[in-house]
Amino acid sequence: MKNKYSSAHIVKWLFSHLIHYKWQVIGALGALGISSLTWLLLGQGIRYVVDQGFVAQNQALLTQALWVVLSVIVIGSIATYVRFYLMVWLGERVSADIRKSLFNHLITLSPGFYARERTGEIISRFTADTTLLQSIVGTGVSMALRSTVMFVGALVLMAFTSLKLTLFVFVSVPFILVPIRLLGAKVRNYSKQSQDKVADIGGIVDESLHEIQTVQAFNHESRSTLNFADKIDAVMSTASKRIHYRALLIASVMVISLSAIFIVGYLGTIAVIEGSITEGQLVAFVFYAVLAGGAIATISEVIGELQKAAGASERILDLMAQTSDISDTSVITKPQLNGSKTLSDNTPVIELNDIQFAYDDALIIKDLSFKVRRGEKVAIVGHSGAGKSTLFDLLMRFYEINAGKILINGQAHNAFAVSDLRKHFALVSQYPVIFASSVRENIAFADANVSHKDVEHAAQLAHADAFIQALPKAYETNLGERGVKLSGGQKQRIAIARAILAKRPILLLDEATSALDASSERLVKQAIDGLMQSTTTLIIAHRLSTVLNADKIIVLEKGQCIASGTHQQLYDNNDVYREFVDLQLS
């Protein structure tokens, strides 16, 4: 399988994040150079001690050399601390920056993207892959750079010690590069496959645990367990291949490098016997050869980690390359949320002209046209699947229409910047969304800068203040994931308070009172009726009481407007609407 991104592209991408912290990078590289140099200098000290102290039996020189060696060790250790601290800090910082960039990008993608992709898999990429990069940048890269410097430095000093023996070492280098080249590509490929399968597991866990009541209600635990076990086995199968090639890479490099060291050591011993080099030169050469061999072994291990990181980088770059289905180009510089002052009251706030929308080649909305005047309350009825909720999605540009035109205050809705367009709408869905934060933050979701008094006032209008005050910390109570601490009716009243506080000119209600008991429904309907006096309202209606209060009713059937009018007009002339009313009355 050909890798989508080259190693050079991935390195350039990572470097673009590191460049913001150039002083930390310079400090880390400086400490790396000092620590590597101190260990390399030990070889020359060993050579000097052997030739001038040990062989010449000079005790004073040996004592002096000991203090020099201890000083070098202290300097090298301090430099190692600085290198380790800065590199690990850079790993944490780059990982945090990548997560911020990735989240900032993901939050802009359209709902269509999340309809195609599993959220759990995306979360896995967001967490596991960025954590892997943190480890690689903080530790792997540091080890690779240190080992590379040590290898190059050892080769230079080996040549300085004995050029003849160094030439024998160079003969083995091409043999080491072959497994790194061939097996490294295998490791990278299987690493990416393994991470994809782990992400798939993340999707299953996210789905199963979030819907645990449905899983348990249908006694699906055993089947879920078996499905999960199959996925785990698939992960292990791919991981086994990755581990095999990585272990083979390490073993191949080790056997070649260690064999070369011992062969060169043998040749060096012959050279000492022949008198072409001294004992000290041989000891120093073997010391450097061991350093070079250890560096190569470390590099071969790190290459496996780097290939794994390359797979993680590819998956992150794939997400960053995703583009929104919604083109966000504004040609309206100063949008008028309540319409231009030059427009008359008869100008439609919302106008649909022959719009069409298809999803996955299935036509959902077909040739739909209607107008909504300022201040009107328009109810939309129809069978399940008629396109009612899809219509709301199209108005807010969660999806692009395939044909036709939608006008907001006389302007094409795709001429607005998406954020400006959505400032026209306050949405209360049938299944309200509650975030794992405080009551205050949930109500003030549209504007975090509103006062506590405004939040309380909105809650009072939504008849939510009484039960909020009864919570352990009132408005500061954390509502838990998806509002688990609230009943369905309480969630809906929080959502209605959110819409009240947003003060948007167009209100979209997806039967917002459906989860309320009779008493709460009466109170909330009063609040909504008051809110609707100052807004233009579209209501997806499932109850007769809702449509009776509407100024106009639109009947949808298979994505088409088959009739519109008042309750009595439609009841007398439209079979679909009459069926809706009769079912309600029965």
What does this molecule look like?
- With 586 residues, the protein is an alpha/beta fold.
- Helix content is 65%, strand content 10%.
- A 6-stranded mixed sheet has the order 6-7-8-3-9-10, sandwiched between helices. It has a 4-stranded antiparallel sheet with strand order 2-1-4-5, with helices on one face.
- α13 crosses α15.
- The radius of gyration is 35 Å and the shape is elongated.
* H and E order: HHHHHHHHHEEEHEEHEHHHHEHEHEEHH
Radius of gyration from the CA trace?
35 Å
Q: How large is the count of helical segments?
A: 19
Strand order of the largest sheet: 6-7-8-3-9-10
Category by helix and strand content: alpha/beta
Tell me the CATH topology of the domain at 7-321. ABC transporter transmembrane region fold
Low-confidence residue ranges: 339-344
Report, as a whole number of angstroms, the end-to-end distance: 62 Å
Please give the share of residues in helix. 55-70%
Q: What is the CATH homologous superfamily assignment of the domain at 7-321?
A: ABC transporter type 1, transmembrane domain
CATH class of the domain at 7-321: Mainly Alpha
What share of the residues does DSSP label as strand, in percent?
Answer: 5-15%
* Secondary structure: number of strands: 10
Main β-sheet: number of strands, strand sense, barrel status? 6 strands, mixed
Q: Do you know the CATH architecture of the domain at 7-321?
A: Up-down Bundle
Gross morphology is: elongated
| Mean residue pLDDT | 76
Write the layout of secondary structure elements.
Blueprint: H1 7-18, H2 22-54, H3 59-106, H4 111-116, H5 119-161, H6 163-210, H7 212-217, H8 221-274, H9 279-321, E1 350-359, E2 362-372, E3 377-382, H10 388-395, E4 403-408, E5 411-412, H11 418-422, E6 425-428, H12 439-443, H13 452-461, H14 465-469, H15 488-502, E7 506-510, H16 518-532, E8 536-540, H17 544-548, E9 552-557, E10 560-565, H18 567-573, H19 575-585
Parallel strand pairs: 3-8, 3-9, 6-7, 7-8
Antiparallel strand pairs: 1-2, 1-4, 4-5, 9-10
Helix pairs in contact: 2-3, 2-5, 2-9, 3-5, 5-6, 5-9, 6-8, 6-9, 8-9, 13-15, 15-16, 18-19
